[in-house]
Amino acid sequence: MAKNHTRYIFSMGELKRKDNSIAFINEKGNFYIPIEDTRELYCMNEVSFNTKFLDFIARAGITIHLFNYHGNYSGTFYPKDQLISGDLTIKQSLMYIENRLIIAKSIVNAIARNIHEILYHYYRHDKKELKPYLDWLKSDVPNFLDKELRIEQILFIEGQIWNRFYDSFSHFLPEDFLMNKRVKRPPDNPMNALVSFGNTLLYTKTISAIYNTHLNQSISFLHSPREGRFSLSLDLSEAFKPIIVFRTIFDLVGRKKLQVTKHFDKNLNYALLNEEGKKIFIDAFEERLNESFLHPKLKRKVSYKHAIKLDGYKLIKTIVEGREFRPFSLKDKE
To answer: Do 39 and 97 sit in the same domain of this protein?
Structure first.
């Protein structure tokens, strides 16, 4: 049986092994999670477990992503690397030394292309105010990136893309979901809360995708490799943020499925999703992630979740065979 289910736990409690199942125990009773088809566990609240439980799920190949009470990402436990490759790690390191800038530019170009595709939908539906930004994304950004640049300059262009993207929200989102500026730790308004939560979910999904390749999680190209984080997951998630995170946000806000007064914690200035808001967001996020499309080269339907893993394989071909790295494009569907 394919291990393809993600299970979310929102309550405080304890995780234990019970025979050959996972038991979640809290004041409401015992709840059992089948281990056979579970791929990931998301603990969205304070959950306790012991090393015996970790050994059990490690042997079952299950990843656990941990969040604290406020919804902030704490870390990930996954089984020891089964696909580790010393040879590929050496080549990945050499690629960072010799061709970091080329790959970093490819990632930033992909961000611009996918944001353009997302916003063009609104432009076609009478939001003509978006035209200057769309033209800038389509023409100026590729021209800038075609020049000889330092990594700091590439990161500056990336920052400009996102900042102008956030500014564009005023043309098609209700006023209570606008952001004055991007604030991450902690978020200071409902839109910042949604972006932080969505980006973190996507980051953890990308960690799981990379785990199932031979890539080294710590050697990245756009983001600087740093201790204490899986920086390659930050790289590979970038092209998918407009497609998965922001399309989810725009849909939920546009259809009023998420509302500031109902789905955000008013005691924290509406800057964090409450439990009901998290559940609504996660359901829509998972639905978007599992949405399938016809892949033009594979000639079969694949999900966006699988497309993240395919980008990992593309990067391996770049590292091993010297092929151009072109992250996923929403327009081309590959």
So the answer is: no
pLDDT per residue as tens digits for the range 184-220: 656 678 998 899 999 999 999 999 999 889 999 999 9
Distance CA(168)–CA(210), nearest Å, equals 32
The kind and range of the H/E element at 39 are strand 38-43
Q: Which residues pair with 14 in a beta bridge?
A: 25, 48
Dihedral through CA 79, CA 80, CA 85, CA 86, nearest 10?
A: 150
CB atoms within 10 A of CB 4: 12
**pTM, full prediction:** 0.93
Question: What is the Cα–Cα distance from 105 to 96, expressed in whole angstroms?
Answer: 13
Same-domain status, 69 and 90: no
CA pair distance 142, 245, nearest whole angstrom: 23
Domain with residue 259: its CATH number is 1.20.120.920
Q: Are 33 and 21 in contact (CB under 8 A)?
A: yes
